[in-house]
Amino acid sequence: MSTRVLRILTRLGAGGPPLHCLIANRALAARGYETRLAVGERGQDDLPMDYLLQPQDALIRIPAMTPALVHHSDVTAVVQLYRLMRQWSPHIVHTHTAKAGLLGRVAAVLAGVPHIVHTFHGNVLRGYFNPAINLLIRAVEKVLALGTDAVCVLSAQQRGEIVHQFGIAPARKTFIVPLGMDLPELPGAPGEFTVGWLGRFVPVKNLMLLADVVRRTPLHFLIAGDGPDRDTVRALTEAFPGRVEWVGWQQDILPVLARCHVLVQTSRNEGTPVALIQGMGAGRPFVATGVGGVPDVAGTHSLVTPEDAQALSEALLRLSQASDECRSRGAEARRFALEHYGKQRMVDQLDRLYQGLMTGQPIVDTLRAEAPGLYVTGGKA
Asked: Which residues, in sequence order, are CB contacts of 30 under 8 Å at separation 6+?
């Protein structure tokens, strides 16, 4: 009998989690798993990502599940998820992102699902809400972790936050499962040195810092994305016509990456930034604020700076004036991305994790025996 995995995601909105979930489900289905993906409704400012869907994706809509922190339909969403679990009887429920993690894990406990897994794609434990709400969210996450068999994070930095800084889950049940994706290579970018910025236009991405960097440099900027903070980008294009180009939200970012020599990222908080990984896979280094999981992604091939416009500007100017260094860092970035963020590695790790849960073997021992060095787990928190 094949293992049934129900993956739950808050919404098919802009960002890395939808890509992660769809890639994982398709690859695991090819290995004999039965997989389904339950998703809620997008928020008003979310950009749609339904274009990622393929005919074979077993998608289930949960109309009552919304990205709002608290919503009147939350209880209804738990009931809808509970009924789905009772009807399909998954062996494993794997939730992704905060709201799906809350509603999905509550429903899974009520439905008596044998194994529960949650993945933090970044986190909302700080930087998103006021201190009182942050404390409440941390308390809720600690309670949810008690009924969770395995907590997955995308980087070593995230694991340090979840285990040690915030004390959400013990080390023995926390695993690093990096993002995995297809990473096509691109030739070097032609023409004028171009800096790319890709992402959602939301406060945590700190577009005001990007605007400050633009003002401090004479470089050409190519911005791809959209969201509620679009007025900041629109003002930049008007203030610097011809030097700042906004191409909107792109379903396929490869044509954008093809025009960029380097990427810049200005976030106040990050999990594992998908756009930077895709850029590395295409052979583009990046300059970024050293927040969240960015330092883990950077390695030695990209430049991490403080959350400071002058530091970011100087790093970009340096690369613009040293084409050989920029190319060599790009080549190293691609090698690093293929080694650490290829699809095969992510699927292998999820497969090992699920098999450990299903067979009742100690998960840490299984993972260490089959892939020594890939995980840094075990011991007491």
From this structure: none
